[in-house]
Amino acid sequence: MGQVDDALNPWVRNAMQDQLRLLPGDVLLYPGMSFERLYLVRYGTFKSVLLDPEGRSHTTGLHGRGEVLGLEGLDPGQHQSEVTALQHASVCVFRYAAWCELLARIPSLQHAWFKALSRTTRHDGQHMLRLGCMDGQERVASFLLMLWQRAGEARADTLDLMMTRQEIGNYLGMTLESVSRHLSQFQRRGWIRLDRRRVQVLQLAALQQLKPAHETRHQTQGPIFPGRMGMSEQSLPGG
Questions:
Q1: Residue in 191, 184, 155 with CA at minimum distance from that of residue 65
Q2: CB atoms < 10 A from the CB of 81, how many?
Q3: How do strand 234-235 and strand 198-201 relate by DSSP bridges?
Q4: Contacts of 86 (CB under 8 A, 6+ apart)
Q5: Whole-angstrom distance between the N-terminal and C-terminal Cα of the chain?
Q6: Is residue 46 in some structural domain?
Q7: How far is CA 34 from CA 76, 95, 151, in A?
Q8: How far apart are CA 39 and CA 3, in angstroms?
Q9: Residue 205 · residue 192 · CB < 8 Å
Q10: With 148 labelled, which of 45, 70, 192, 199 sits at a CA distance of 20 to 30 A?
Q11: How far apart are CA 75 and CA 183, in angstroms?
């Protein structure tokens, strides 16, 4: 989301209920949890997972800095997805009513919020296109480029995959073997260098050539609020 001026941060701090620090694997939201709060990601990456009627899990989204988690629980009154931290992460916690009051008080934040919702809708559409219209190597290349773009100003040649090959395959609608095969192909071609869950991008242009042209136009997502807001942090229970 777009940044909010530092002068507005006292309003933001007053509206915040808490900040939480999470470790990799900590669960922030789980299916059946009552909808009461929204969670603004300060840093770190999360995955959201849905269960199908047969009980199989499906990774439906990756979420990073500047995104607000938990809105999917508003309509049914309880959360449908499990949202888990993939890295060390921190979130700002807002009661839903306080968040709505904050949007009404700060027009620039309200505008940034609607832009974020629009971007989320677009990204969801792109992911469906990725699943329905791309072949395997295009999906894997698109995934690597998504991670590269999400790095924003901290962008570097080395990417943290954060997930196992099986989890990546689940997200991309592929088997573990297919994901591993295409990553190995990219390495043999000299496009990347693999080191367990880390990937060094050697030829970015080669990956971009595999990605459909309409997906090369992106807006880098920044934080809603710049800098740290001076609130104390605490770990999730059991973290």
A1: 155
A2: 22
A3: unpaired
A4: 24, 44, 45, 46, 47, 62, 162, 163
A5: 28
A6: yes
A7: 9, 12, 32
A8: 17
A9: no
A10: 70
A11: 39
* Residue 26 and residue 87 in one domain: yes
What Å distances lie between residue 207 and 142, 160, 172, 238, CA to CA? Answer: 8, 17, 16, 40
For the chain, helix, strand, coil in percent to 5 are 40, 25, 35
DSSP 173: T
In a domain, 218, yes or no: no
| Cα 122 to Cα 1, 21, 77, 92, 119, distances in angstroms | 14, 29, 25, 25, 5
Q: What is the pLDDT along the chain (239 residues), one digit of tens a residue?
A: 544 445 557 778 888 889 999 999 999 999 999 999 999 998 899 999 988 888 788 888 888 888 899 998 998 899 999 999 999 999 999 999 999 998 898 888 888 888 878 877 777 766 776 677 788 899 999 889 888 877 665 556 788 888 889 889 989 989 999 999 999 999 999 999 998 888 999 999 999 998 654 444 444 445 555 444 444 444 343 33
Same domain, 14 and 117: yes
7: which DSSP letter? G
Side chain identity, residue 145: L
What's the token pair of residue 206? 């080669």
Is pTM, for the whole model, over 0.90?
A: no
Dihedrals φ, ψ of 52, to 5°? -85, 175
